[in-house]
């Protein structure tokens, strides 16, 4: 009998691996439907959908490995990171889906959310006021008009698989939709700034590095409390709080 392994689990969703199959269980059926629709439109390799039932999506495992994880060592050659950058560019150049994704929140809504979250971080003593203030200043550069692109919306380093210098697939599309392409690039390189040049070598031009850095701060500020409340540790070495400290 195949072993059942919990990949990630919290109150909103869980992912289990059973042999060569992943089962994604989501409290919001709309996220599963959006994920399948996004994978069918994406011009990059995606997992094979094996079956779908209410609140459960079964997909096949991808060949290859990821380039690392947040808080852990990064792996892969510069060519592998460049290949990931090229795949991301192919996605961003494709016609975007009709609906906004996680990377497509309005400037006004995002600014209000960020201000509220910064206030809660300080009031609750979660982070020092100078750390929050400095990163709020850095994050302001991300709050600008952007041309809508086909964005993944949650392009963590663990969501792109490579084999040598070839991208074999991209997983977890539930947050996909129209959005700011630099959000995807920032999410992918969060905590691994040393590989940003490699990624951009494959991605190409038209990237504002100040906006990438702004998204690192913004994403980290918004994530710290949620991660803590859902059983993750943003204070672990190399994770979100270290990303914030690096901006000081």
UniProtKB/TrEMBL annotation:
Residues 19-207 form the Aminoglycoside phosphotransferase domain. Gene3D superfamilies: 3.90.1200.10. It comes from the Bacteria. Coiled coil: none annotated. This is Phosphotransferase family protein. It comes from Plantactinospora siamensis.
